[in-house]
Design a protein that fits this description.
The chain has 401 residues and is α+β, with helices and mostly antiparallel strands. It folds into two domains: 1-50 and 149-216 and 362-401, FAD/NAD(P)-binding domain (3-Layer(bba) Sandwich), CATH 3.50.50; 218-236 and 245-354, no CATH class. Helix content is 32%, strand content 25%. It is built from ten helices and 21 strands. The strands form four sheets. Strands 1, 2, 9, 10, 11, 12, 20 and 21 form an eight-stranded mixed sheet that branches. The mean pLDDT is 96. The structure holds flavin-adenine dinucleotide. Flavin-adenine dinucleotide binds next to helix 1, strand 18 and helix 10.
Amino acid sequence: MKKFDFAIIGGGIVGLTIADSLLKKNKQTKIAIFEKEDKLALHSSGRNSGVLHAGFYYSADSLKAKFTRDGNFAMKKFCVDNKLKINYSKKVVVAKNKEEDSTIYELYNRGIKNNVDVKIIDKNELKKIDNNVKTYDVSLYSPNTATVDPIEICKKLEFNLSKKGVFFFKKTPFITRKGSKSFLSSNGRLFYYEKLINCAGLYADKIAKQFGYSKRMSIVPFKGIYLKYTGNKPPVKVNVYPVPNLKNPFLGVHYTVTVNNEVKIGPTSIPAFWRENYTGFKNFKLNELIKILFVEGELFLKNSFGFRNLAIQEIKKYNRKHFVNLASSMVYNFDAKGFNKWIRPGIRAQLLNHDTNELVMDFVVQGDNETTHVLNAVSPAWTCSFPFADFIVNKYILNEK
Ligand SMILES: Cc1cc2nc3c(=O)[nH]c(=O)nc-3n(C[C@H](O)[C@H](O)[C@H](O)COP(=O)(O)OP(=O)(O)OC[C@H]3O[C@@H](n4cnc5c(N)ncnc54)[C@H](O)[C@@H]3O)c2cc1C
């Protein structure tokens, strides 16, 4: 009989760091990670920007604020300890007009409240950091933002956890709950557990609903596409972000200087039509299309949280010229033709609250003595993962005070 103390569903960064945290509490504990794919990190954890955020975007009362700063340091430490790549690439947030200046100050204040190292800089100081970057008047400088290789990190975690006795079951999806403390996977295989931890990303809400959680909330997928620069005059040396709309959880099209010093622009937040709607009809699911079209149609008609405008603005970004143009406004010299390679898109597992018709801004954790469900683990959950996992383990899984 396959029985585990902890059955973790989903082999992304959240599932992996929770396993790591559980092992730190008790080396003997019997943990299994169940992943529906044949490899780990095939979804968000292997398709993100790889940015270790610093922690100034989020209001101080949020879980995002609580864990981003420490998560940034913890992930850097993991990379150093395991000899993995880090690019200490830094970041500036730039404004287009006077109105956006006030959001720069708001971000600065949030950063200070969250105990994050941030600085307001003028145009001269910006020039010293990157002389091709443009702002209206001031900009926000974050020295601790960095970039890493998410796939490399997930592989290392998998290797370390396997060595410590964690069982990995790949191509083994959670399909359905089978009474108490057991679940059914494909080919009728049954697995038993003391506690189940649902870290299934784009499918976390569906699994949670089988246990009576994620009520009145479901995932609306938003696609992030990227263009990579392949020319020989990279426009930026640091990560450059526009001022975001603080009413939604997306940060706007920005420049990322990757761990390998390549430059990419993106990601977008284009409403997707099914959960794994990456390219073409791959992973197409008719039932998902119908449900999502219904939800997105309603949001579009009611223009809830400005969804109609967001959708129209975002869909335009499929046009390379338009997409590239948006990024060009943040720099002086720009080689538009160099941004010509579409790279692996990602999809955000963004939760929608059906009672308010609003996007949920913070991470959500629900559960009881038997199951824990990690919902809305959207950006910056990658950055937050180590301390967020400790928090979930202490507060929700082991119920420690
Ligand atoms: C475009 C984009 C850019 C981003 N950029 C950043 C960034 O720069 N910095 C940052 O901090 N965050 C970023 N994020 C967010 C970050 O990637 C996610 O918060 C993080 O990867 C979430 O990890 P996860 O483990 O919850 O999800 P995932 O990595 O999606 O893992 C969930 C896993 O569950 C598996 N699964 C699903 N259903 C089942 C089932 N029934 N049975 C078994 N397994 C199942 C999936 O196959 C998957 O492997 C970005 C996200 C996107 C989409």
